[in-house]
Amino acid sequence: MNNSVSLKTKNMVYIGMFSIIIAICSWISIPTAVPFTMQTFGIFCALGLLGGKKGTISVLIYCALGIIGIPVFAGFSSGIGVLLGNTGGYIIGFVLSGLVYWLFTKMLGNRVWAMFLSMFLGLIACYVVGTIWFMMVYTSTTGNVGVYAVLSWCVFPFIIPDLIKILLSILIVKRVGKYVKL
Question: What is the C-alpha separation between 73 and 27, in angstroms, rounded?
Fold first, then answer.
């Protein structure tokens, strides 16, 4: 078997596997005052272990699976309705997070600080897109809402858990990454 074909097959397996890991993580809900899922943790692990390009492809496949109706989103939800709903912008933001990670690690490398900064900037991009989307959909379906209110509902409660998920994913990437041969 050609080494190039073997490498492509291995990449496809890893990309598919991480799409499934992201889905599984989206189903894990941590009960706190404002419950959160482990979805972004799966995304950060995919990006860190697979790299920006393959990790982003994994996120795109995850999103595509949910859009076509496979219940991979949080709460076992799926479909275009989820994407068009209040929180759909955060799902779109996951892809943007991957692209930001890819761009910044390409420029800065894969040192721990560069990975953290790249994941953090990707998270901010996700928050921005998701918050704008939420405001637009909420305003069109329910009524006007202020930026601070949306940030209080959709961003502020998740900052610390998301930072912890970034740190945990980097720890896993550094521990497991030597065994993942791409």
Answer: 7
Q: Which long-range contacts (CB under 8 A, 24 or more apart) does 17-25 make?
A: 18/42, 18/45, 18/46, 18/49, 18/50, 18/55, 18/58, 19/46, 19/58, 19/59, 19/61, 19/62, 19/65, 21/45, 21/46, 22/46, 22/58, 22/59, 22/62, 22/72, 23/62, 23/65, 23/66, 23/72
Taken in order of first residue, the domains within the chain and their CATH numbers are 3-179 (1.10.1760.20)
The token pair at 9 is 């097959």
Task: Quick: pLDDT tens for 135-165.
Answer: 999 999 999 999 999 999 999 999 999 999 9
**How many C-beta atoms surround the C-beta of residue 131 within 10 A?**
19
Cα–Cα distance measured from residue 101 to residue 87, given in angstroms and rounded to the nearest whole number? 21
Q: Could you tell me what percentage of the chain is helix, strand and coil, using 3-state DSSP and rounding each to the nearest 5?
A: 80, 5, 20
Separation CA 47–CA 14 (nearest Å): 11
Residue 4 has pLDDT above 80, yes or no: no
Closest CA to 46 of 61, 31, 35, 36: 61
Its pTM stands at: 0.93
